[in-house]
């Protein structure tokens, strides 16, 4: 008991000294979540910044993604929050981001290098600089080349359709005794690339959500049929209610499914966990009737409007957005960069000695040229998350056999309409 | 076998009564079902990420055996496999590299000759071993000591405040007759059943207005208001005879002295139960601390270990290891205080 | 027994605490002199009521205001009045027994699922708890050990409980591995409706049954042994003794167990949410999860709608409590 008490005293004393020494410097809080090593890399980069700028104390709060997705929106609504945050739901929360234009050294640099994605993170019609994308992501497929080879099935080519891929994978699954032919993450964002490939358009002429169209119906119908037929790995989609995210990466890593539709962010994860167990390749997005599109996306680092020291935030953001820092971050995390000049000048020396990883990264870079205009418009569209949520919830129910397809489409329309109505209240 | 005869005893006599069989079966079933998952959790926390994803799963954690072999002049660590080809005895070979479904392997004793083997004919050689890295890395990189201190602080302070305020209120509600007592009681019973998860947003706005966000007090105060404690203690205090209080008043005891010299000692079993449950609840609290605390120097253990859950990937091996580590204090509390839990629950009688 | 308790508390109250309490007595006496006994009552009540009011009653009040206002704003002054719109949206149905005909179908699915869950979980768990308590009350050795075996899951956090069982029940988990050993067909424990519901019920029983076993065991141990001996001498068969002696004398404890179990079951959330995410489809979507997601967790937050749903849930709980109070009164009169 006493010992605990003393330990407590020591801890209190320590924390007060820490706080008082920090009181001399301006404190900038960064809320950050990690899927892999990026938290460590970021922490390194910030340490270097603080060495050069002793008057700013940057604290990296590594949190669970759940905090970013659930706690941060409420905090922002209450006018709280960190100074800088790494966020994926950028557009819908854009009213809370700070316009950095007066606080960055060279707004023209920002516009030139991050300008094409600036609309993803600012309200419609605004020309604010609110932050930059720490990474771009693109959805796409991964195939287990070893399983295909063992089954004696050729990998479908670059123009192969969704039907071709599912048929080929089903053949592999059958011959190798696997649980399913393919899996697609439980996510509206993942579903949207293929939807657009089948001609879907979510955005009506006036910018509001359009009703569910034939493109969505075509691919969702296929997905439900593939689920009932056992080709689609059922567990991923039916193992949750509502709009919860579920990934199937573990099953692909464990060689239980020969084909997995996810995205570029999986590369580092697959490389570490699969190791030398089998050969895998990135395939880009299979084709639908209209296109072979994936969906772009990613996480952005944005400044929060409620900060008390915007100048310090501007300096931190300037540093993190500088070309050499972006380059180092990209190389060490194996992310796709969003910095125009880093992309244009090329020569990225990714921190890996795996040929598979390098091949996969370049496959995604190549596939980024195939993103259809309807898909490219979605990240900057404020109703995208409403649309994704309705898609996931109702498609999941249709796969579980609770709703017929027609009922599911009606419910999607109703869900989106309720959402629009609520916003206009 | 000795352990079994120690743990169970037949209903007397040498013959087996059917109730003995039922007892044995039920207890055996209970042991497997109740304890099995915990053992499995502990075992899994020592497995490497790749092994966690494996099917069929193994109970014990394994590590792959490697061997040092000279390849083109330099020594290399190569994974060892058992190779079984038809018509030959199984051999242990080291894999140099794999191309598609063909593995190039060498015999460690004869590293010059490359043998080509179909990958289905080889299985890795493994021995039981612990992936201690699951524990070591988080303990090193992640501020375990600080999180532990925060958890201890929250649990300790919340439990003390709960015990004091709840027992005072329960005393007033059980031993005095005053106007509005029934109204207070009804209010407490009515709110007894509303889970925090349905009230999060309003509670957040209250805590935010009070400036308690990113403060351990913001975690402590909302939880100590739990009506459960008041309810439990009041029910127990009702059984204390009023004559004791009257006698003390004759002896010029103040109401405060009655409370802490008579009521508190006599309520000890119920207080013990409340204390134990309060410790367990506060230690395991997850959702509310996650919402209030977003600064890393304030994280409790449960919040801290959740940072291994990213958007797209969850680092299970770390989560499992840290889960086991955070369970240890609760298990210790239980082992040492088991007697009080049972005595307390029996004593509270829960009328 | 009482002296034993005194030594326990004596050990807990070390000298400094005792001094402190004595020191507090000086201002206490002064206060009692001024305010009299009623003043002391408020002194004892106020700390708890202050915290209770601030963190339970005020949020409850805010909840009511939320339920009649719209938008995603947090502060009451920023929210616009919408009247009964949220309640209308929740309650609008062609047929209340068919969620698909309702405007807010997920709410009704969650409501019916909760009712189904409560009845199944509580009845199965109580049967289990009674049998276990009877066996532990029998002549066995190392009773403390066995009690601990059944009790320890109560100590685990719900998140851990959900995680462990998800791992064991997933398609490639231990359970299917056991089936695989016996050449049996693998079962999709968490993705077939019936199995997943069973798994949710089973896991929540696993997590809570120990607590109730302890309460029942305490009740059983309070039943005088000589009652059974007398019955045995009269040649009463054991089954009859159970119905005639054990059950009536156990009734007070059993009632407590039923009420507590009902309350807990209505609130079902954490472990089942981690275990199934509410799936497959919506077959394990319960009210608490619905409210949590609508009001807080989903991208499409609607705090007003969630508050309206939580008020409906609260009114169900109040009815349950009143029923319980009625039952106790009725029993006392008898």
UniProtKB/TrEMBL annotation, chain A:
Example GO molecular function: maltose binding
Q: Could you give a single Gene Ontology term from the biological process aspect?
A: maltose transport
> Pfam families given for it?
SBP_bac_1
Family annotation (Gene3D superfamilies): Periplasmic binding protein-like II
User: Where is the secretion signal located?
Assistant: 1-25
Q: Which GO CC annotations does the UniProt entry carry?
A: ATP-binding cassette (ABC) transporter complex, substrate-binding subunit-containing
SUPFAM superfamilies per UniProt: Periplasmic binding protein-like II (SSF53850)
Q: Which PANTHER family match?
A: MALTOSE-BINDING PERIPLASMIC PROTEIN (PTHR30061), MALTOSE_MALTODEXTRIN-BINDING PERIPLASMIC PROTEIN (PTHR30061:SF50)
Which protein is depicted?
Answer: Bacterial extracellular solute-binding protein
Q: Lineage in the entry?
A: Bacteria, Pseudomonadati, Pseudomonadota, Alphaproteobacteria, Rhodobacterales
UniProtKB/TrEMBL annotation, chain B:
Q: How does it sit in the membrane?
A: Multi-pass membrane protein
Localization in the cell: Cell inner membrane; Cell membrane
Highest taxon in the source lineage: Bacteria
> Mainly resides where?
membrane
ABC transmembrane type-1 domain boundaries: 148-337
Q: Which UniProt keywords apply?
A: Cell inner membrane, Cell membrane, Membrane, Transmembrane, Transmembrane helix, Transport
CDD domains given in the database record: TM_PBP2
| Pfam families in UniProt | BPD_transp_1
Q: Which GO terms describe its cellular component?
A: plasma membrane
Spell out the InterPro entries in the cross-references: MetI-like (IPR000515), MetI-like_sf (IPR035906)
A GO biological-process term = transmembrane transport
Q: Where are its TM segments located?
A: 21-43, 147-171, 183-204, 216-237, 258-281, 316-337
| Described purpose of this protein according to its UniProt entry | Part of the ABC transporter complex UgpBAEC involved in sn-glycerol-3-phosphate (G3P) import. Probably responsible for the translocation of the substrate across the membrane.
Protein family? Belongs to the binding-protein-dependent transport system permease family.
Q: How does it assemble?
A: The complex is composed of two ATP-binding proteins (UgpC), two transmembrane proteins (UgpA and UgpE) and a solute-binding protein (UgpB).
- For this entry, the protein name equals sn-glycerol-3-phosphate transport system permease protein UgpE
Q: Which organism is it from?
A: Actibacterium lipolyticum
Gene transcribed to yield this protein: araQ_5
Automatic annotation (TrEMBL), chain C:
Give the transmembrane ranges: 43-66, 117-136, 148-168, 195-220, 241-263, 305-327
Gene that this polypeptide is encoded by: lacF_4
Q: Which organism is it from?
A: Actibacterium lipolyticum
Q: Name one GO biological process term.
A: transmembrane transport
Q: This chain belongs to which protein, by name?
A: Lactose transport system permease protein LacF
Which Pfam families does the annotation name? BPD_transp_1
Q: Residue ranges of the ABC transmembrane type-1 domain?
A: 111-324
Belongs to which family? Answer: Belongs to the binding-protein-dependent transport system permease family.
| Keyword Transmembrane assigned | yes
* Keywords per UniProt: Cell membrane, Membrane, Transmembrane, Transmembrane helix, Transport
Q: Which CDD domains is this protein grouped with?
A: TM_PBP2 (cd06261)
Classify the main location: membrane
The compartments listed are: Cell membrane
Name the InterPro entries for this protein: ABC_transporter_permease, MetI-like, MetI-like_sf
Q: Which GO CC annotations does the UniProt entry carry?
A: plasma membrane
- Membrane topology annotation: Multi-pass membrane protein
């Amino acid at each position: 008991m006493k010992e605990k008490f003393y330990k407590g005293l020591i801890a209190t004393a320590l924390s007060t000294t820490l706080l008082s020494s920090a009181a001399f410097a301006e404190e900038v809080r960064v809320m950050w979540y990690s899927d892999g090593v990026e938290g460590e890399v970021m922490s390194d980069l910030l340490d270097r910044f603080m060495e050069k700028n002793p008057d700013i104390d940057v604290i990296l709060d590594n949190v669970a993604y759940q905090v970013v997705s659930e706690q941060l929106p409420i905090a922002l609504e209450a006018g709280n929050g960190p100074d800088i945050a790494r966020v994926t739901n950028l557009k819908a929360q854009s009213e809370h981001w700070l316009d950095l234009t007066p606080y960055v050294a060279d707004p023209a640099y920002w516009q030139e290098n991050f300008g094409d994605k600036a609309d993803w993170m600012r309200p419609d019609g605004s020309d604010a600089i609110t932050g930059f994308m720490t990474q771009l992501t693109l959805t796409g497929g991964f195939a287990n080349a070893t399983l295909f080879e063992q089954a004696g099935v050729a990998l479908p080519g670059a123009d192969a359709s969704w039907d071709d891929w599912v048929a080929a994978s089903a053949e592999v699954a059958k011959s190798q005794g696997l649980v399913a032919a393919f899996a697609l993450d439980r996510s509206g964002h993942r579903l949207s690339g293929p939807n657009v490939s089948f001609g879907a358009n979510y955005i009506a002429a006036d910018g509001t959500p359009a009703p569910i169209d034939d493109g969505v119906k075509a691919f969702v119908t296929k997905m439900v049929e593939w689920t009932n037929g056992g080709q689609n790995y059922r567990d991923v989609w039916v193992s949750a209610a509502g709009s919860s995210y579920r990934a199937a990466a573990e099953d692909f890593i464990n060689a239980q499914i020969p084909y997995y539709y996810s995205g570029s962010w999986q590369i580092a994860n697959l490389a570490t966990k699969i190791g030398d167990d089998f050969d895998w390749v990135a395939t880009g997005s299979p084709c639908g009737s209209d296109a072979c599109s994936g969906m772009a996306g990613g996480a952005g680092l944005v400044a929060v409007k409620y900060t008390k020291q915007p100048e310090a935030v501007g300096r931190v953001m300037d540093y993190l957005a500088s070309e050499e820092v972006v380059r180092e971050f990209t190389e060490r995390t194996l992310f796709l960069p969003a910095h125009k000049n880093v992309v244009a000048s090329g020569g990225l020396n990714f921190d890996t000695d795996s040929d598979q990883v390098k091949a996969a990264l370049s496959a995604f870079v190549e596939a980024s040229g195939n993103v259809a205009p309807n898909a490219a418009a979605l990240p900057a569209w404020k109703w995208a998350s409403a649309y994704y949520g309705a898609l996931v919830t109702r498609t999941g129910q249709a796969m579980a056999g609770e709703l017929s397809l027609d009922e599911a489409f009606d419910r999607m329309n109703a869900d989106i309409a309720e959402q629009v109505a609520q916003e206009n209240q | 076998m000795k352990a079994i005869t120690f743990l169970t005893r037949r209903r007397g006599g040498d013959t087996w009564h059917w109730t003995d069989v039922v007892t044995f079966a039920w207890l055996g079933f209970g042991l497997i079902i109740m304890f099995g998952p915990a053992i499995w959790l502990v075992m899994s926390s020592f497995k490497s990420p790749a092994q966690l994803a494996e099917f069929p799963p193994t109970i014990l954690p394994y590590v792959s055996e490697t061997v040092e072999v000279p390849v083109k002049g330099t020594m290399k660590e190569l994974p060892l496999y058992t190779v079984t080809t038809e018509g030959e005895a199984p051999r242990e070979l080291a894999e140099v590299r794999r191309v598609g479904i063909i593995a190039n392997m060498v015999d460690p004793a004869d590293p010059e000759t490359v043998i080509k083997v179909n990958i289905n004919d080889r299985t890795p050689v493994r021995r039981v071993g612990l992936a201690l890295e699951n524990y070591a890395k988080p303990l090193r990189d992640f501020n375990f000591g600080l999180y532990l201190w925060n958890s201890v602080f929250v649990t300790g302070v919340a439990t003390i405040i709960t015990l004091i305020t709840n027992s005072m209120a329960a005393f007033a509600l059980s031993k005095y007759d005053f106007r509005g007592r029934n109204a207070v009681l009804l209010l407490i019973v009515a709110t007894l059943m509303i889970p925090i998860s349905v009230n999060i947003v309003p509670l957040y706005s209250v805590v935010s207005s009070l400036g308690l966000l990113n403060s351990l007090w913001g975690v402590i105060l909302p939880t100590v208001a739990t009506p459960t404690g008041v309810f439990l203690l009041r029910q127990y205090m009702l059984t204390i005879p009023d004559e004791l209080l009257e006698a003390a008043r004759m002896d010029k005891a103040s109401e405060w002295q009655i409370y802490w010299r008579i009521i508190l000692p006599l309520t000890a079993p119920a207080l013990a139960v409340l204390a134990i449950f309060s410790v367990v609840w506060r230690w395991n609290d997850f959702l509310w601390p996650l919402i209030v605390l977003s600064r890393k120097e304030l994280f409790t253990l449960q919040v801290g270990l959740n940072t291994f859950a990213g958007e797209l990937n969850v680092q299970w091996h770390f989560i499992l290891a840290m889960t086991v580590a955070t369970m240890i204090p609760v298990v210790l509390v239980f082992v040492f205080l088991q007697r009080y839990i049972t005595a307390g629950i029996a004593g509270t009688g829960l009328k | 027994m009482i002296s034993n308790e005194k030594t326990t508390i004596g050990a807990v109250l070390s000298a400094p605490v005792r001094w402190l309490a004595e020191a507090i007595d000086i201002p206490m006496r002064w206060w009692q002199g001024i305010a009299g006994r009623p003043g002391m009552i408020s002194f004892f009540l106020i700390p708890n009521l202050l915290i209770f009011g601030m963190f339970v009653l005020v949020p409850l009040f805010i909840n009511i205001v939320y339920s009649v206002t719209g938008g995603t704003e947090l502060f009451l002054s920023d929210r616009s009045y919408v009247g009964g719109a949220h309640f209308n949206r929740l309650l609008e149905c062609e047929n209340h027994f068919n969620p698909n005909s309702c405007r807010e179908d997920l709410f009704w699915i969650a409501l019916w699922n909760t009712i189904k869950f409560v009845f199944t979980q509580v009845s199965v768990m109580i049967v289990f708890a009674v049998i276990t308590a009877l066996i532990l009350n029998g002549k066995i050795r190392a009773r403390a050990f066995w009690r601990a075996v059944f009790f320890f899951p109560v100590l685990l956090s719900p998140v851990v409980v959900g995680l462990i069982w998800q791992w064991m029940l997933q398609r490639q988990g231990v359970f299917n591995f056991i089936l695989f050993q016996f050449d049996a067909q693998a079962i999709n424990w968490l993705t077939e409706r019936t199995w997943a519901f069973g798994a949710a019920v089973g896991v929540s029983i696993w997590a809570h049954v120990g607590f109730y076993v302890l309460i029942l065991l305490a009740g059983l141990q309070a039943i005088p042994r000589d009652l059974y001996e007398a019955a045995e001498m009269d040649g009463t068969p054991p089954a009859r003794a159970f119905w005639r002696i054990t059950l009536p004398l156990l009734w007070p404890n059993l009632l407590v167990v039923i009420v507590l179990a009902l309350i807990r079951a209505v609130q079902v959330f954490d472990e089942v949410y981690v275990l199934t995410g509410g799936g497959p489809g919506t077959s394990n979507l319960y009210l608490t999860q619905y409210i949590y997601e609508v009001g807080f967790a989903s991208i499409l937050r609607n705090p007003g709608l969630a508050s309206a749903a939580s008020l409906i849930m609260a009114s169900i709980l109040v009815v349950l409590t009143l029923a319980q109070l009625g039952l106790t009164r009725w029993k006392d009169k008898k």
